[in-house]
Amino acid sequence: MKLSGQILANIDPEISRQLREITPKVAKKDVNVWVTDNETANRLNWIDLPTKSRDLLPELDALSAWARSNGLTQIVLCGMGGSSLAPEVIASTYKKLLTTLDSTDPDQILNSIPSDLSKALVVVGSKSGTTIETLSQFEFYINIFKEADLNPIEHIVIVTDPGTPLDIRARKEGYKVVNADPNVGGRFSALSAFGLVPAALIGVDISLLLDDAEKLSLILSSKESPAIEIAACLYSLTEQIINFCDKGSAAPGLSNWIEQLIAESTGKNLTGRLPVVIEEVESAISGITVGFTPGEYDLVIEATLGEQFILWEWVTALLCYLLKVDPFNQPNVTEAKDRTSAILLSLKSKGFDTPTPTYEDSDYLIYSNQQINNIPDFLKSNVTYFAVLAYLARGSDDEIYKIRKLIAAKSKTATTFGWGPRYLHSTGQFHKGGQQNGAFIVITGDSGSDIEIPNKDYTFSQLIMAQALADIESISERNLPVIRIHLKNRKKAIARLISDLEKN
Known about the structure:
With about 500 residues, the chain is an alpha/beta fold. The chain folds into three domains: about 1-30 and about 225-325, Rossmann fold; about 50-205, Rossmann fold (3-Layer(aba) Sandwich), CATH 3.40.50.10490; about 330-504, Glucose-6-phosphate isomerase like protein, domain 1 (Rossmann fold, 3-Layer(aba) Sandwich), CATH 3.40.50.10490. It is about 40% helix and about 15% strand. Strand 15, helix 17 (about 460-475) and strand 16 form a beta-alpha-beta unit.
């Protein structure tokens, strides 16, 4: 790997000294490195994954051979956060086909169905075995295969920790199961079974990933670790915003993986670092810029994908030491889940509790805790960053992404973009647990269809709406500015939002 950039000359030598002292302790899995809870002792095996994950190779070779022999070439991955972001980066880097389903939006779910179900193999990944989105997707695909007179057991593979509810059920019902290391947290699991099972099934030589990661690991555990310099930069040379750009990178989507890793790990106790994924370096509004190929960035990290995975896990662990937070918990992710469950429980008795809109026309409705009726007025909020949170269908509603850049330009404020509910397992932790200085634009929309969730009292459209409303509740309780724009006709309303922002 190669590290370069003008800000390297500005690193505080005292910060570097602290990290050089602490790095060998991290390598030895010393839980006392961090301000921590009891969970941390059981989350440190990511350090060994470049070596230990080789134990999975025979099992993954056999699984891949079984899939090929049965003509299972259309791979769908159902998973959230750490269970899907790394495989997606691996697929794009190696130019392999992988359909990632990390949403509860009915349109995106329907779009995920392979063209030939007889050739489909669905990987269901959940560390806890209780992830509501993933379990709902699992039930959906069981039903889809049965309706097509196909045996789900021959078309679904489960990845989960040993002993989870999903593990117990899957083994009882006869599904193929690959267990992940239970002592690795979800967002640190790129080189675990969660990243490697989908990678192997789409034809990636995962031994090369592990080779690269293992070689760099020897350096990362030493006092000459490049992770020390990077962590020192992210801690001392920005108070919050880190802009990441994939432009020209050999690993498209790497920034999105890093976004979850840093935001969810550091964003708690009212501190943290917020990654902002930008299209080009010129889009940066504030903070420092990081790129992965030579360019006008403050910091450039050139490395193979295997090196990037293990490097950024080390960087994040060291950064959390400096910030005095636990890298491995996510208290506000749990908060969002609990609120969603409560809303779903109340659906039968009273439906959704929706306030009167502050604005409505033929295209959309606006709800806000700020008593405003348009986006331009909302963009006058005095905040450090805006977050666009789109509970829409990634793929078919991608035009909505254009408003990130427009909002950043109009407001002269750093602006993030997240697909809901995916971001709840990523930047969602930071939004509620990090610095309380953001403003939030939540976008929901009517779906062209709805899907019943087998064995549940609610549909997918109800689930995604409950997730959006639950997060709005959490944000509002913190007295942070939030606006919800509900699209009546998605395509038309998205085009209008873009047009209005371009004009104003």
